[in-house]
């Protein structure tokens, strides 16, 4: 894996938590302060920071300190790798189920009525 290739395991692990998914969704409108992301969760700030650390380690967000405020911004391009992987898996399984369907139709045609 190259330095710039996203780690799908980290991305899927980050997305496995509903709190992190909600935080990521909260960034759809652009950069948001950590305190604003923390507010709807009801979690303590250290817990929120750990969740954000997981998202940042996975490359799904970037954070930047502006004065006394830490701002978070989504990196939607990081999801492209997961999309490509899921598309490949979907194509593989659709091809398999299509072949199975064809095989079953062949079997049914050969059965006496």
Walk me through this protein's architecture.
The chain has 113 residues and is α+β, with helices and mostly antiparallel strands. It is built from five helices and three strands, in the order ααβααββα. A three-stranded antiparallel β-sheet has the order 1-3-2. Strand 2 (61-66) and strand 3 (69-74) form a beta hairpin. The longest helix has 32 residues, at 79-110. The chain is elongated and about 80 Å long. The termini are far apart.
For the structure shown, list the relevant keywords.
12% strand, 113 residues, single chain, elongated, 3-stranded antiparallel β-sheet
Computed structural class: alpha+beta
What would the principal axes of the Cα set say about the shape? elongated
Count, helices:
5
Number of strands: 3
Nearest-angstrom radius of gyration?
21 Å
**β content, as a range?**
5-15%
Parts with pLDDT < 50 across at least 5 consecutive residues:
none
Q: Gap between N and C termini, in Å? A: 56 Å
**Biggest sheet layout:** 3 strands, antiparallel
Q: What sequence of helices (H) and strands (E) makes up the elements?
A: HHEHHEEH
Task: List the topology elements.
Elements: H1 8-15, H2 18-26, E1 32-33, H3 34-38, H4 45-57, E2 61-66, E3 69-74, H5 79-110
């Amino acid at each position: 894996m190259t330095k710039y290739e996203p780690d799908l395991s980290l991305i899927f692990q980050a997305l496995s938590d509903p709190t992190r998914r909600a935080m990521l969704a909260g960034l759809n409108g652009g950069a948001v302060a950590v305190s604003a992301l923390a507010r709807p969760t009801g979690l303590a700030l250290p817990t929120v920071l750990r969740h954000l650390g997981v998202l940042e380690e996975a490359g799904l967000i970037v954070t930047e300190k502006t004065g006394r405020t830490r701002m978070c911004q989504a990196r939607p391009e990081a999801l492209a790798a997961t999309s490509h992987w899921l598309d490949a898996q979907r194509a593989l399984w659709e091809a398999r189920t299509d072949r199975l369907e064809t095989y079953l139709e062949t079997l049914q045609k050969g059965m006496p009525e």
